[in-house]
Amino acid sequence: MNSRLVSVMRKEFIQAFRDRRTVIMIVVMPILQLFLLGYASATDVKNIPIAVWDQSQTPQSRALLDAFRSADYFRIAYAVSSQAEIQSLIEQGSARAALIIPPDYDRRLLENNAQVSMILDGSDASVGATALSVAQLIGQSYGAKIVEEQAALQGRPMLSASPLQVRTQVWYNPDLISAYFMIPGVIGQLLFMITTVLTASAVVRERERGTIEQLIVTPIRPWELMVGKITPYVILSFVEVIEALIIGHWWFKVPVIGNLGLIALSSGLLLLSSLGIGLFASTVAHTQQEATVMVQMTMLPSIFLSGLFFPIDAMPRVLQWISYLVPLKYFIITLRSLMLKGAGLGTIQNQVIPLALFGFIIMGAAARRFHKTLD
């Protein structure tokens, strides 16, 4: 082989492995993508958290609950004692469905006309559709089992009619329209991605052009420069949110039931995180390309572990734990609750508080790094 060619190739290998960021991009990024695509992209809807209001408290009702547990599609997460508790859990997104067993369930089961109610959260169309079909299937299967047992005990032919009916109700999105689920998530994704990428280039651009030194020698203070850098992106981001809400409502017919002030508040809290991540990356990176690669390291987990496309409950337990560190997850849950359910501040506080905490921590770290960079 040509010795000159070998020398050039050797030099490129040495330079590539000297650059830590290049090694991360070559080695870490493919592994991260493989794990996220392999485990997070779960299309099978399982472990749907449900609330149970068992008013019967009999062996028959407990046997029905065992049938739901054994199906692997449902996970009985809450035992409630009122309709108000069910509504609160579903509005918060803690429960995706609720099973209501009436007080006379055992007696009516013996009379072959028992009914139970299944309330489904239609704000997530994919989960709602699966829960709807699986709940009806479990009811039919369990009813057929009861008929078979009764026929064996009484020595008579099996009845054709099932002794149990599962009556389903779909809240917030009765027709299970997928756009109602996707549009709020897409708004969060656009808001997070665009502001992070644009802000990541803010300081790096000045450094590449050689104008950062000119800014440093001016009387402008570091915090004034930082605020001046990010304020245009804040304004553009809110314009983007308004634009997306208008298009989503008027074109895709997605309802906007919640308070617009709370939507603006939650959007502002997400901006703290996205702008903070972008600003931090811009102070660490030396080129715009490096800044882009750095923010992409946060993009993949944010997209796959936020519940934007795939239900978090169906992911492995480790990825569910990691999802608690994704600010976009809290925003998407909040926006869906506000737009589709008309939730109030008390309902979304479990999402707003972590979102605000992440935002202030990340922005504080970015501001500290920004100040040191200018010094």
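^ that was protein a. below is b, sequence first then the tokens
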Amino acid sequence: MHGDMKNKAYRIKIFRVIQFLMITSVFLLTACEEDDSQEYPDPTINLVSDPDYISSDAIVAVGQTFKIGIHAEWNEQNRLTNFIAFQNGERYIDLGIYKEEYDREIEITKGLEDTDEWEFMIRDYAGQWSSVSLTITKNPNIEYGEILEFDDIRLGAQNSAEYGSFFSFGSGNVYTLQEAFSNQEIVNLVYYYDGFDNFEENIIASPGANISGAFTGDYGISNWTTLYTIRYSAETLDVSADDFDSASNDSILLAHAFAFESGKRKAKYLEEGYIFSFVTEDNRAGMFKVESVDGTDAGNIVVDIKVQK
């Protein structure tokens, strides 16, 4: 009898413990659900009002460069994860971030469109977002800019014994690797053949394109202290050779310009007749046309180049 009472008391204690755990679990689940369903404000984004920046609708001349300043802040709950800029509904910049505050200066060259509708969006970890916008209208008094033109520039691949692989817009000269090392402050373009890494074949890039394996040794690009960077269009352009050849100002260059950040580091798989656009790190628009390609890592390429002064 005494044993039965002890067992009954034990069972009661176990039941109370289980009951307590169940009540606690329900409370915790309810609290989590309430926390998950709690609404937080959207992140904030603003155009910086400063004499150096455009922060409201404006009229800008074709080819003129202007700056826009962005400041964004989190909602003190979810960090900022994406900054996106749209030009006339198309993505111009799309960057991943992970910050509580985000500041960015965007440098833009006015293109040929009559009106550019710009929208700048910030998104956070929870998918909440905010945006600001402005309109840039083309000044009807168009004055196109002058360009530099370089015809029949022959560049050798990395193992060419006849031709240098490096070119400078400033001097208009082609340089060997050793010569380029001594003139790295003015070297803009690099040509090489990739049959050893990603097998991307004939490539035009720039010293800042993270090139590995092609130019090594004491004068190799990894030993340079100045690495000029150019970004290229993702694909060859739908532009005729005649239109390229006849261009005497920067109108065609501006028509195919893009945000430096959205460009590619290399123009790859080059073939005769291909035309690519590019944007330099100092925001100059340019294009090049492939005249001929001959050989592989000891071969050469001939290109015509046009770039804003």
